[in-house]
Structure formats: C-alpha cells, structure tokens
User: Fold this.
Amino acid sequence: MRGSLQTEEIVEFPVDRRGFLRRECAACHRQFKLRRSGADASIVLRRIMKSLPHVNEQEIRAAISQRICPYCAHRADGDEWWTDEQRVFLGRMAAAIGEEVRFEQLRHVERTLGQNPYLTFLPVAPAPFEGASRTESDDMRVMPLVCCGEEVKIRESWTGSIRCPFCGIEHATEPVQPPADPD
Ligand SMILES: [Zn+2]
Ligand SMILES: [Zn+2]
Assistant:
C-alpha cells in the first residue's frame, strides 16, 4: 500500500546515545529517562489508538505496568509519562493515522462502487507522515538500580534520594565514596 504508515515508523521516539527515552512526571513535571523497552512500542500504539474513534480498546490493550517518579514518588500507568514534545508528536501521529484510515475507507468504497455512476468523490492520499527527526540529547546522569537490575537517568543537579521507577524503593544519590587510603 503506497504511503501507508508502517508500525515500526510510528512507534519510535528518539533515544540518547545510551538508549534512554525521556519521560516526564505529570505531578512534579520533572524529567528523567528510562531505557526504551519493547513494551514502549505497544504503549505508544495504545496511546494513539485511544485517540482514534471506533477502535476497540480491548483489542489493543497492552500490559501496562505502573511507573514511579524517581523525584516525588508519584505513581501512574506506563503510558502517562509523556513530555509536552512527545504529546504533540503523538497528536500529529494520531491525526496522520486517522487520515490514512479514512483514505483506505474511501478507497474501499471507491473499489466497491467502482461502476457506480453517482460516485462523486475522489479519495486523496494523505501526505506522508514526517517522523521525529530531532535527536535526543545525552544529558542527565545514570543511576544504577540494584533493586531491579535497571538504570534510570536523573537530573544532574538532583541531590536528594530517588525512588526506583519500577519498584519504588528509595535510593541515596550520593556518589559511592572511594575506599579510604591506607596510611
Ligand atoms: Zn514527580
Ligand atoms: Zn527497583
């Protein structure tokens, strides 16, 4: 199908050089980063499908586990952590998919009624969707999460303790002190 959106094109948000995806807490609006996982693709798809009419949520429901804000311990589903920029991008993506769906529906009508002399419209193919081209900056510092065998990236300036975004356990962020020099 010409011009169709391919799944692998619509689910990719830019990640930084270490593979981290930017996330934002809806409660405190601070940003952090988690490694992009396979589940993120279905989360993005679910989010887009929710904004389209006539899509059965049961058919697209993905296993969404909760995440916890490392800074303020706010808890929310895995698909509630978008930055403003990501929300805008998702909205544009959903609009493009909606156009694509309408176009295919009209094409179907056109094919079905091909011999109909009263057919008074000509389906117009939507413009190809421009994906995210911005590259993700390599900011923030990596904190290991020994509790879950994961890593989170947090603000450089954050000095308080953090919560593991996966299990909620509290971690101190002070750098590990090097062993004292024997004297
Ligand atoms: Zn927060
Ligand atoms: Zn954990």
